[in-house]
Structure formats: structure tokens, C-alpha cells
Amino acid sequence: MTAAPARRRHEVRIIGGAWKRSKLPVADAEGLRPTPDRVRETLFNWLGPDLTGWRCLDAFAGSGALGFEAASRRADAVVLVERDRRLAHALVEIKTRLRAEQVRVDNADALAWMARCPVDSFELVFLDPPFGTPLAEPALAAAARIVVPDGYVYLEAPQPLAAEVGLAHGLAIHRQSRAGSVHFHLLQRRAPAT
Q1: CATH class of 35-189
Q2: For the whole model, what pTM was predicted?
Q3: Cα dihedral across residues 87, 91, 185, 109: positive or negative
Q4: What residues contact residue 19 under an 8 Å CB cut-off, 6+ apart?
């Protein structure tokens, strides 16, 4: 009888801030594809190394790489929303290990959670919905409502976002790039005209 091959343990590392080089385990879960280090490094170069005073939401949190990266860079509050109960439990374990008091984990559907969230609740919303699902645009619409004026929404998608799609929700593309099959966008909510 041949033994089943051992599963390779997957992990990503926090790339900056207080927990730089800390490892985050990545569970084997269908559709879970953590944001690559190179993409996170580019994103946080765009945002800057210090997020003091920012409230951040990591919707579709998965491994929590984006949210924990923000917390490592001194974000005041970070909410990780993850629908899969097993993944949410793993995020709580990471939060405990890192002593990340500013991080909260909610086991919920991201779109429903954002629909209940008060307007203007976050300076930064991360959206990395499962690839191959039609969730990018509904998630973008939900995030546009809860991000503050001049705040940011980050979106990963399998194709580039058309500028008019963001503008339809009051979001202008601030920066965008591509790494392999991942198109990533940093959008900014337009402040109301005065």
C-alpha cells in the first residue's frame, strides 16, 4: 500500500512593518489564492509604509495577508471578513499569535457584511474575491459606499478594470498594474464637490 503524498504546507510572509517576516499559514482551500508578495509590496509602496490612523477592511480575507500587512504597518483598526468558518478560525489563531489587538475577525459573507456596514467606515478596503466568480463589481459597489471620501479601494481581478466601471461607483483608478494573471488596482473615492 502506497502512502498518500504529504501535503505541502503553504505560507506567505508579512513584508513590512512591526511583524515583518512573520509567516502566515495558507490553508488548502478551494479558490484560496493569497496575494503574492510582489503584488503586496507594490501595493504598500503605493500606500506608504505607515497607515497610522487608518481603518481597514479585508473583505474575502482568506489568508489575511492584506489585512495583517496593514495592521503590521500600524493601521488603527483592521477587520478581516471571511465566509469559510475554517479559514476564519485560522485567522483568529494568527491574530492571537501576533497579539494583533487592532484586528477583528468576522465569519460572514463579505457582500452581506458590507451591505450592513455604516457609510464612510474605512480609509482602505481590500477586495480580493475568489477568481472565476462574478463578485468583483458587486464588491466594488459595496466598498465604494463604506470607504471615506479620498479613501482607497484595492481590487484584484483576473482582467483589468475598465475606468468607467470604477467611475460608475464614484471611484477613480489611482494606480494599476499586473503580475502574471493578476490585475490589481488601487482606486480612490472621489470627494464630493463643494
Answers
A1: alpha beta
A2: 0.90
A3: positive
A4: 68, 71, 72, 98
CA 60 to CA 40: how far, in whole Å? 16
Coil/strand/helix, residue 184: strand
What percent of the chain is predicted at pLDDT more than 70? 90
pLDDT, tens digit, 9 for 90 and up, residues 19-52? 888 888 776 666 556 677 788 899 999 999 899 9
**Cα 40 to Cα 70: distance, rounded to the nearest angstrom:** 10
Q: What is the dihedral of CA 44, 135, 177, 70, to 10 degrees?
A: 0
Alpha helices in 37-159 (DSSP H): 37-47, 65-72, 85-98, 110-116, 136-146
CB-CB contact of 104 with 80 (8 Å): yes
Please name which of 154, 159, 131, 132 lies closest in space to residue 143, comparing C-alpha atoms: 154
- Evaluate whether 58 touches 66 at the Cβ level (below 8 Å): yes
Return the sign of the alpha-carbon dihedral for residues 111, 102, 94, 74.
positive
Q: Which band of pLDDT confidence, cut at 50, 70 and 90, is reported for residue 5?
A: very low
